UniProtKB/TrEMBL annotation:
Entry EC number(s): 2.7.13.3
Domain of life: Bacteria
Gene Ontology MF annotations: kinase activity
PROSITE patterns: HIS_KIN
Identification of the protein by name: histidine kinase
Xref: SMART domains: HATPase_c (SM00387)
Gene3D superfamilies registered for this protein in UniProt: GAF domain, Histidine kinase-like ATPase, C-terminal domain, PAS domain
Length: 494
């Protein structure tokens, strides 16, 4: 008997949560409060009550508390506290974990083979995050259906027997078509059936073709761990001879007598190999982003060095413009590298715009300019490729406003506003400065025009204003430009 098994209910719950979860002390106390009333609910409803918590860094869950009704006909013969719970066998539990919603299964089957009605309710903390699930299971009496031999068989029975194989000399057609390995052993663990994939697997792993009625442990010694598990239903991950396997064991019983064991084995070696390749690819992509960012910083340092060596006042502004452009592009890669997932190169346009604009305002501290950025409730994501184009566009237009809209000590305001319709995104950059009657041709405006037309497939224009300037960039929403969490769609009407 394990040490924790003799602990009190509260102590078991605390110890299991400390060993297997990342729950805080406050969250554990909340679970203890729920667990304190489990027995009362079990007796009141004649149901089996459980609390499951998700295991940290895992897709599995663990039973941390239970209460059985005082009944003679018990569904569970032994305590299941501390048992691992798998998604394959408890879909309702994991639905509630993922969705944070109640789930109900009217005919669930326990690992002991009893049919129960299962209700699952998520337990949430103060932040409305799911920290566990409360499970109620009530035994369902399934009536035995007797069939008159003179009557025809139940609908579809002959067809399903043909497909699965009803006689000893019939090979189940379904298992022949599946890539999973199906093995069936008798009550003495001797192999009595293997589908074609299974036969190939056993002969390769055991290096023998004499497999019929042989002890499965003698043929595949690594399965001893699986067979030694007392649970009737068990899932196990194995690595054997560079093969990654998921083994599902189901013990078959008839009137509580063991009649055999069914093994379903998935060879996920290729999947694991691809996962490793993807991880390596992620590392390479992240390294590329690092190098691009570092190279941009190197170029910026060279430009600053050239400026310190002395440039004319006429040329100085051109160097500063170049530095701002380099900084804008570098901002894209800084945001990507700040993410936990290296594969995700989508960039949040609102964050990008705030980063670019705040840098420019800080570089112009002598200017009395307020910067306003309005996302209008939108979370706008775009690919790194398009993000670089938008970064340069924002840089050029905001930079123009800072430089030319507010001469001398004139105070003012620059607004960067995002509007959206179902199909288009509009970026409005405006100021309340001195304004321009007709935009003059310049390198900056030429850059903006080319990027909008060629990279964004959009349109760039100025809107007439009584005061200041108002530039509008319109481009289509696409797989590379997506909008989420919109409070409302706003059409600029421009």
């Amino acid at each position: 008997m394990e040490e924790w098994e003799i602990l009190s209910t509260d102590s078991k719950l605390e110890k299991l949560c400390a060993l297997h979860t990342d729950l805080t002390d406050a969250e554990v106390q909340l679970l203890k409060h729920v667990a304190s009333s489990l027995q009362m609910h079990a007796d009141l409803t004649d149901s089996y009550m459980f609390i499951d918590c998700q295991i940290k860094d895992s897709e599995y869950a663990i039973v941390v508390a239970e209460a059985f009704p005082k009944s003679n006909d018990s569904v569970y013969e032994n305590s299941v506290v501390g048992k691992i719970v798998f998604d394959t066998f408890e879909p309702g539990v994991f639905y509630s974990f993922r969705k944070g919603k109640k789930s109900q299964i009217r005919h669930a089957v326990t690992q002991e083979g009893h049919t129960v009605e299962q209700n699952v309710v998520p337990i949430k903390n103060a932040m409305q995050q799911v920290i566990g699930v409360l499970i109620q299971e009530k035994k369902v009496d399934v009536p035995v259906v007797y069939q008159d031999e003179r009557q025809p068989p139940l609908f579809g029975q002959e067809s399903i027997e043909y497909v699965l194989g009803d006689k000893n000399d019939e090979m189940p057609a379904i298992s022949n078509l599946l890539m999973e390995i199906f093995l069936l052993t008798d009550d003495e663990d001797k192999l009595i059936y293997a589908n074609p994939v299974g036969v190939k697997f056993i002969t390769e792993m055991s290096r023998t073709e004499e497999i019929r009625n042989m002890n499965i442990i003698d043929l595949l010694p690594f399965l001893k761990t699986v067979y030694d598990q007392p649970e009737d239903v068990f899932v196990f991950d194995l690595t054997v001879d560079r093969k990654n396997l998921i083994v599902k064991k189901v013990r078959l019983r008839k009137k509580d007598r063991l009649t055999g064991t069914l093994l379903i084995i998935q060879d996920i070696t290729e999947l694991r190999t691809k996962e490793k390749e993807l991880k390596m690819k992620s590392v390479v992509i992240q390294e590329i982003h690092h190098r691009v960012k570092n190279n941009l910083q190197t170029v910026a340092s060279l430009v600053r060095l050239q400026m310190r060596k002395g440039v004319s006042e006429e040329s100085k502004s051109y160097f500063e413009d170049t530095l701002n452009r380099i900084s804008s592009i570098a901002s894209v890669y800084e945001l990507i590298l700040a993410k936990e997932n290296a594969d995700d190169d989508d960039v949040n346009l609102i964050e990008l715009t705030e980063k670019i604009c705040s840098t420019m305002v800080l570089n112009e501290l002598h200017k009395k300019v307020n910067l306003i950025i309005r996302p209008n409730g939108n979370k706008i994501l775009t690919s790194s490729r398009k993000a670089v184009s938008i970064a340069l566009i924002v840089n050029e237009l905001v930079q123009n406003s800072i430089k030319h809209a507010f001469p001398a000590d004139m105070a003012g305001e620059i607004s960067v506003i995002f509007y959206s319709t179902q199909d288009f995104l509009e970026l409005h950059i405006s100021d309340n400065g001195v304004g321009i009657k007709k935009p003059k041709s310049s390198l900056g405006l030429e850059i903006v025009h080319n990027l909008v037309v060629n990279d964004l497939n959009g349109e760039f224009r100025y809107l007439p204003e009584d005061r200041g300037t108002h530039a509008v960039i319109t481009f289509p929403v696409s797989p590379e430009v997506s909008i989420f969490y919109e409070k409302e769609d706003i059409d600029s009407g421009g």
